[in-house]
């Protein structure tokens, strides 16, 4: 399980780097087609809807989850609850997924489809949503296994919606949002085994033993 996760993670990170290099100077045909399809529609109702979606599905999510994990860790630690070790490790996982994706922006220094602050690759909003979703699923694997399938579906749906919103708002290329998903998945699959956060077997679940 560990080897499969780490191999998958390495492939995702490699894909992220390769995609960033290949599209650094020139967008792909898919990028250009979507940019042309959006055109100036981001100035109208489409842009307003995308902006509102981005206000919710963006950097605020990992911040809120991170604060929640910090509070949970402190409270559980004071109670002597072993689940504090889980919430702490998930907090580290969340930070790794989000912070490493930030490093890609100055590394690739890719221009956006239109005038907008900061670099384009990878999308910070999509990285934020994907990071929060990945961490939430891992947290549920340990502490609320019955919710894993539901949380996974919500995480995937939220990430896809964030991708669509950023492209519709005209501030990201398609490959920006794809790269964000790749790097978060890759880092998550590499860091989770290192933190011993791979799905535990029945009797090993902290939730079951507490």
Written overview of the protein:
By secondary structure, this protein is an all-alpha fold. Helix content is 74%, strand content 0%. It has one domain. The chain contains nine helices and no strands.
Write the layout of secondary structure elements.
Blueprint: H1 2-23, H2 29-38, H3 45-56, H4 60-78, H5 83-108, H6 124-143, H7 148-168, H8 174-194, H9 206-209
Helix pairs in contact: 1-8, 3-7, 4-5, 4-6, 5-6, 5-8, 6-7, 6-8, 7-8
InterPro entries: PAP2/HPO, PAP2/HPO_sf
Keywords: Membrane, Transmembrane, Transmembrane helix
Protein name: Phosphatidic acid phosphatase
Search tags:
PAP2/HPO; 74% helix; transmembrane helix; membrane; mainly alpha; single chain; 210 residues
Calculate the terminal CA-CA distance, rounded to whole Å: 25 Å
- Beta fraction: under 5%
How many strands? 0
**If you average the pLDDT, what whole number results?**
93
Radius of gyration: 18 Å
Order of helices and strands: HHHHHHHHH
